[in-house]
Amino acid sequence: MERAFVDPSRLDELNIHPSMRMRIDHGLSRRSEPYIGEGNLRLLKSHAGNAAARSQRS
Q1: Count of structural domains within the chain
Q2: Disulfide engineering: 35 pairs with which of 4, 23, 26, 29, CB 3.0-4.6 Å?
Q3: Does residue 42 fall inside a structural domain?
Q4: Which residues of 20-57 are buried (b: 16+ CB within 10 A; e: fewer)?
C-alpha cells in the first residue's frame, strides 16, 4: 500500500478506489458541515432524538 501527500490537481493521475476518492473529494469540498451520507445521517438524527428524550425523562 502506497501513501503520499499530493496536490489535489494530480488526483486524476492516481489509481484511487472510488470510495476513497469520494472521501477525498468530500474533504476537499470545504463543506460547512461534514458529509455523512443519507443512511448515516438518519441514524445520527434518530440517536440524537433518543438522547434528547432520555434527558427529558431524567
Answers
A1: 1
A2: 26
A3: yes
A4: eeeeeeeeeeeeeeeeeeeeeeeeeeeeeeeeeeeeee
Determine contact, residues 31/41, Cβ cutoff 8 Å. no
Q: Over the stretch 1-47, which tens digit does the pLDDT of each residue have?
A: 778 899 999 999 999 998 888 888 888 988 887 777 665 566 666 66
pLDDT value at 48 more than 70: no
Range of the domain at 23: 8-57
26 Cβ neighbours under 8 A, 6+ residues apart: 34, 35
- Give which of 48, 23, 21, 18 is closest to 34, Cα–Cα: 23
